[in-house]
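Marked as duplicate of an earlier ticket. Keeping the data here for the record.
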Amino acid sequence: MTMAKDQKKQPRPKAETPKGFRDYFGADVTERKAMLDRIAEIYHRHGFDPLETSAVETVEALGKFLPDVDRPNAGVFAWQEEAVPGGGSGDWLALRYDLTAPLARVAAQFRNDLPSPYRRYAMGPVWRNEKPGPGRFRQFYQCDADTVGTASVAADAEICGMLADALEAVGIARGDYIVRINNRKVLNGVLEAAEVREDQAEDVLRQIDKFDKVGREGVLALLTEGRKDDSGAFIDGVGLSEAQAAPVLAFLTSKGDSNSETLDNLRAAVGGSGIGAEGVEELAQIAGMLAAMGVGEDRAVIDPSIVRGLGYYTGPVFEAELTFEILDEKGRKRQFGSVAGGGRYDGLVERFTGQKVPATGVSIGVDRLLAALRAKGLAGAEDRGPVVVTVMDRDRMADYQAMAADLRAAGIRAEVYLGNPKNFGNQLKYADKRGAPVAIIQGGDEAARGVVQVKDLVLGARIARDASHEEWKSQPAQTEVARADLVAEVRRILG
């Protein structure tokens, strides 16, 4: 008896999604897949190969992302394998944090087998052990394309052109997006021209990033003496002289009406800096190659205001921004903003091999891009459910299965109702819940006559909502056709 009592005491598990995670149902999954398929087609057309790596990597391989070496599960979901037989502790493993670290491991591990350069794209979920918040999840999708093993800026130009093509392939119209391109070397040249000390560089970068918010005068104050913010609090400046700040401000305000004008302004901003001149020359090459590919300045443009992520990248950086306005939760207009970013990063494979391997790549924020398509009305349309074959006679299940099979063979999505067929009304409720466009009905007398009833559920719903009594009585939403004409009739209704 006591055992039964103990069993009773066991609380039932809560049916709830863990914090920071979510479930994706029918339409969400279908929409995301359709979008990623279109992007994959573009990447494939550009000669990139798909790569699927394991969801789990060793913590060692993910190394650079770990904020705290003593707690290897901070930032990532990690666990330690059981101790190895014969002594020694087990490996620390973790769910992948992004798709770049696995690429580095693959490029190092299979370097003798893979072509060089190696061009790959990858799409899939990544996991971050961070505090969840509104719109911030611990599992999300990434979609990356990278070229590993070439220092040529032709690879960067190609990825920028490919990104523009991918955005158009998913439905973002020309004029509704822009790919902005900058170069870390130009910024290094500007810092050199401004005689910024190494210990000041990080602070200068931080202030540059505020240009959009505080404007030219605001950044000048932050680079020199400091300024009061909106709340009245004083923010200390970096301590540069106005003469030192001049190249930085020239850089920030160098965007011209055309790429050639911007490049001329940047040449002036970097002054005599060798690394700066190299960066400007790379941007000039990228601009020339994009023009040759047919990617005009209305799609991709040199823009020095792109400074995010410059700490990580070593050469060209790029960002795709959606320029159309949407309404936020409070009904205010705002620009949609960035949906993809990337750039050149050397040192990726070096961690594994000790040799510098140049690489460049881009990552598309899948959820953000999908949200943009929904905001434009390009996704989120009701997914059409299957044709539902209803069951009037339990013992004639084989006939109903044959009808569904005929419809499927013709490329039409169809299923037989497999719940309890007793209540016919429940079958139609089920069809409604599934978003079924058509229901098929055949009782014993219809079977004897070799006919089926085909019910147009979309038209039926409209009639029920809008029609006159006469129209409703005439039942135009339901037709009787010969069993042999079933497929043709359903095709007609589906259009």
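See parent ticket for discussion. The domain at 172-336 is CATH 3.30.930.10 (BirA Bifunctional Protein; domain 2).
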